[in-house]
Design brief:
By secondary structure, the chain is α+β, with helices and mostly antiparallel strands. It is about 40% helix and about 15% strand. Strand 9 and strand 10 form a beta hairpin. Helix 2 runs antiparallel to helix 3.
Amino acid sequence: MACDRSSERGAALLTVLLLVAILSVIAAVALERLTLASRMTRNIVSADQGRAYLLSAEQMVVTRIGDLAALRPDRTTLEGGWLGQDQAILVPGGAVTARMIDRGNCFNLNSLVKGPDNGPGTAEIQDGTTFVPRPEGIAQFAGLMRLLGIDHGQAEQIAISAADWIDSDTTPGNGGAEDQYYSGLNPPYRTANGLIADPSELLMVSSVTPDVYQRLRPWICALPTPQLSPININTLLPGQAVLLAMLSPEGLGLDAARQVLAQRPPEGYGSTVSFWSLPAMAKLSVPEPVKGQLVQKTRWFEASLRADLGGDMVEESVLIDAGAKPVRLVRRQWGEGS
């Protein structure tokens, strides 16, 4: 009888221990889910708050660029230390940081083509616009790639294929690629037949490998216009000399381009005439459209904005048109800026 009672007490104790273990597991799972839900709620609140701060910061940046454009009506220079410098603003719970760059100082992928109206002030592209390959843009893109160490033949093929990607026809250029090529891939796809919206689109183009894209990424952009890249001779840094050299890779070269930019007067150039009269530039034989793409005043600015709220980050990149009256924001991209 005593043995039976001892067995019953043991069984009861085992049952209690099992119940405690089960309840502990349930409590741990519930606590984990509660913690996760709290964290997700905090992240959502932080993201909403961060976006609100960044939307306010956009307007401050637009105002700042408007002031910069009005400071010297005839030119945009490095005066004021605005280029590439982080400017922080304290906000409740953290800080917002803004960094501005001259977005004209890049190779505009959309300059690989031209439309029927492509004057200096053109920015609005109408639906149904027909784009055709632009030889000057293709030559500059191929030259840029050669200066970056990409094989000559591959550079030519990529430049022509990229123009085919944007232009309105379905006939490939010499060494290029159109729908017939891409439809045979797995998975198949078609060309855009329109302006590129983001430089990453270049990865879809024939012969562009991830390695080639990584080499090109710091130097390319996708402006909302097929204008030749408007290089500002007053803000282009010696470290960006490849963008000047690409105008005439064989005639100028990287070293000469760096020297030209290093000799720029502190107040910049008031006109491009004086720049083209420099000995290193005067000897170059370039088409008039190429001469015209060098400017002394910036139209396109990009601002990278970041809100840091106690470790929760929200990032945004905006493109601003300083040529419009008033200055206006034309593109917004959430996530890490380019």
